[in-house]
């Protein structure tokens, strides 16, 4: 029997190795405080520990939170007789004492702690089978508007009790786009970026979601789960920009005056105004109810419109949504009188001017709003001085202000000058303007250029705008310093892009040709420019401009390697700080005037947030963005030509017709750069019918002229000697042939 009991104990000890363990990893020992960890749900009758008694102790006693589960044998064998349940009691606090034969405690009691370890034996459960909530359209993405909650009785410190929320179904699902998202750990439901932009109660006023929750962090196929339904009502967004506001200028009402309002969808928002124009005086404010006020009178002539932004933030200072743009237009009142263009306006009229011809136009100004009754002006002549040979020689168009000759032609010897007082009025104000009319000699002489051709002018295409490149001169024999002798120069041919202009010296009539727009070798390498010299006064009948009033010159533009040019100086992109890495955040474009390929690079990306495609100019995020660390975040984009070829051009045209050798140094962009020198032969020659013509020079292997003459004479001499020898030989042979012929005729019969 003893042997059998011993074998049975050994079997139990082997089972204990798989089910429980002490804090020191031993299975038997003296009586002392100990802690044991045991999984819940294990089979009963599992041995925990064997306590050993020291004399005079002969037995053991167990007390505490046994729950009739834990038992200790007299021999000190501690075990449990049914499965543990962590959800019922996660820790059992026991005491063990050693007793002598009389039942008296001789050792202990000592604390024995049993910790029940969790297994996944409980499924998560939603607190509600159905949830209901509402969300405003255009609400901020990621801001929770509803929470779903589930519980799990398993240990939350283990995967068994770690819950994972997920949206299983969204109805309706439009274009396969999710409008809602859920925080997998907290169950917070919010809008996606697409939902913030596209939710519209007029189209779909409600949505239904099916939400699942899983334990084991959602990572195990054996995890338990539960589902719930969520009904969501979409309500109209009241965070909208108000209609444009119109304010009458120079208001005398007490300020501040409420002009409009904005409202966030929920109470508690903190409102502020942002002046993007950075005005020195910003006359608007907002209170914490969202009411917007003008704080002082506005002056339309100082500024006729304002644009600023209203911002709503939460209690942490973070924007709740996008800013709203507020427009305020300042309405005009008639608070400005007409003003004259100058203290005295001077016009000229020729002696033989026809009746009704225009003398000039008086243009007065009114600072009130254009195209309204407040700025609509009337003109009227109130006095003419002198009144010779009669009053009323002039009239003025009531609304246009154009002066005309009314009654007869004027004579300079009678009255060389007239002074007019003209009343200019709007509906409330009147102003007197003064006009001086000078009677001048007739314009019967045309301007004549000092020369008709100013030759060739060679300029680099990067010549500065405003540079004077040529001086031209024409003269006019009419009365000096009048409209008949004043000369205006116009370019009438060869400059369709308007790159050149001519300024005239009013004292000398000298014309200065200036650059108004950049020159461009690629589009206009050579331009034949034609000038025309004219008078501001019309010529008398029968006199016309002729070739003497025209001149020309040829503009030759040389090439300059120009830097690439961006389509705009500043590129802006608005990006959420939570965009995924690799998201395209913007795009820049540049063009090279020579048509070369361009490579893009970034400069000043101090935080390392961005990268740029060197070919396309597309910019991507490469690291998480942080609005608080830098907004706006500014970087420079550099556009560089790619070095595929170079163009050689001339700086002038006066070259000798011969071959030139041009040495060209070529280097790369490496570090350090490597370079080489190329020898390029260039031949200048005249062109004849599309081919290059130039006199032949001495070439290697070809005789000079003297050598050629000597060779020719020698050749003729040799030919002469040969001909003489042949001639002498022929004569000798001929005499011999005659003798032989005579002898032969005597012996040979004639042939028929």
What would you call the shape? elongated
Instruction: Give a short account of the largest sheet.
Output: 5 strands, mixed
N- to C-terminal distance: 174 Å
Helix content: under 10%
Give the neighbour order of strands across the main sheet. Answer: 1-3-9-8-5
What is the count of β-strands?
51
Query: How many helices does DSSP assign?
Result: 3
Identify low-pLDDT runs. Answer: 1-25, 734-752
Structural class: mainly beta
Average of pLDDT: 86
Nearest-angstrom radius of gyration?
54 Å
The proportion of strand residues reads: 35-45%
Could you characterize the architecture of this molecule?
With 752 residues, the chain is mainly β. It is built from three helices and 51 strands. The strands form 16 sheets. The chain has a five-stranded mixed beta sheet. It has a four-stranded mixed beta sheet with strand order 2-4-7-6. It is elongated and about 160 Å long. It starts with a helix and ends in a 5-residue tail after the last helix.
In short:
The protein is mainly β and 752 residues long.
Question: Key features?
Answer:
9% helix, disordered N terminus, five-stranded mixed beta sheet, elongated, 51 strands
Detail the topology: elements first, then pairings:
Blueprint: H1 2-19, E1 20-22, E2 28-30, E3 34-39, E4 46-52, E5 59-64, E6 70-72, E7 77-80, E8 91-99, E9 105-117, E10 125-126, E11 130-136, E12 146-147, E13 150-151, E14 164-171, E15 180-182, E16 188-191, H2 193-198, E17 206-214, E18 225-235, E19 245-248, E20 257-261, E21 270-274, E22 284-286, E23 291-294, E24 305-313, E25 324-331, E26 345-350, E27 358-361, E28 378-385, E29 394-396, E30 402-405, E31 417-425, E32 430-440, E33 448-449, E34 453-460, E35 468-475, E36 488-493, E37 500-504, E38 510-515, E39 526-534, E40 550-558, E41 565-566, E42 584-587, E43 590-591, E44 598-603, E45 610-612, E46 618-621, E47 636-641, E48 659-667, E49 675-683, E50 686-688, E51 691-693, H3 705-747
Parallel strand pairs: 2-4, 3-9, 11-18, 19-25, 26-32, 34-40
Antiparallel strand pairs: 1-3, 4-7, 5-8, 6-7, 8-9, 10-13, 12-16, 14-17, 15-16, 17-18, 20-23, 21-24, 22-23, 24-25, 27-30, 28-31, 29-30, 31-32, 33-35, 35-38, 36-39, 37-38, 39-40, 41-43, 42-46, 44-47, 45-46, 48-49, 50-51
